[in-house]
Amino acid sequence: MEKSQSLHAYIKEELLDRIKAGKYMPGEKIPTELDLCKDFDVSRTTVRTALNQLTLEGYLSRIQGKGTFVAEQKVKQALSNTIKRYSDQIAVQGKKGIVSLVNISVIPANDMLQHLLDVFVNAPIQRIERVRKADGEPTQYEIAYIPWDVAPGIARKHAESSLYASLSDNFDVRIAKTTETIEIALADERTSKHLNCEEGMPCFYMETIAEDKKGNKVEFSRSYFRGDKTNFTIERNY
């Protein structure tokens, strides 16, 4: 253990190493708090703090009266250049991915959308709310904004598949570049409802601006990813 590391942080790291090394498998019950206290020679409070953090981060799940179990592996999504659809990325992980439409509406562009999408104030903007699920569990809640002039009349059939593929196949709009910003946010009432999680749960929050090959901004989106169900892979070539 490093000198600067607290006991509960050390135990959390050790347990996480065991999970990632496959010593504790998904769905497997881990040793009891008492057994872990003996294993690490620490107090129950210290062990409980480590377990609570791993539970909050989605590596463990606690079932009242039964114990603590290793959670199913998180859904992995690529942030590197990829043309794979969500369902394809999920399929290679042995899960079934679906996109469910919550709502499509047309709204007037406000000052923010005017700035982000280079449109006039009050220009018609299609607002598309969707939820992505892996094996029926919500992992991502997204609100996308697409100017009407870019792709007039986006419908359910377009929104419940890859939106970028639909833009290309049905509207001759091809995404050439995306700029993404990621930070941590806490789930509010609306987000927690769509992600089926508690209010205040840490989520990855991503804002994306998509452009075509001419540099025209064709989409702005806000996405919330469940922090306990999702992680990201970034691949860079040098």
From TrEMBL:
Gene Ontology molecular-function annotations: DNA binding; DNA-binding transcription factor activity
GO biological process, one term: negative regulation of DNA-templated transcription
SUPFAM superfamilies: Chorismate lyase-like (SSF64288), Winged helix' DNA-binding domain (SSF46785)
Keywords: DNA-binding, Transcription, Transcription regulation
HTH gntR-type domain sequence ranges: 5-73
CDD domains per record: WHTH_GntR (cd07377)
Gene3D superfamilies per the UniProt record, alphabetical: Chorismate lyase-like (3.40.1410.10), Winged helix-like DNA-binding domain superfamily/Winged helix DNA-binding domain (1.10.10.10)
Family matches, as InterPro entries: Bact_HTH_transcr_reg (IPR050679), Chorismate_lyase_/UTRA_dom_sf (IPR028978), Tscrpt_reg_HTH_GntR (IPR000524), UTRA (IPR011663), WH-like_DNA-bd_sf (IPR036388), WH_DNA-bd_sf (IPR036390)
Record-linked Pfam families: GntR, UTRA
Protein name: HTH-type transcriptional regulator YbgA
Species per Swiss-Prot/TrEMBL record: Lentibacillus populi
Recorded name of the encoding gene: ybgA
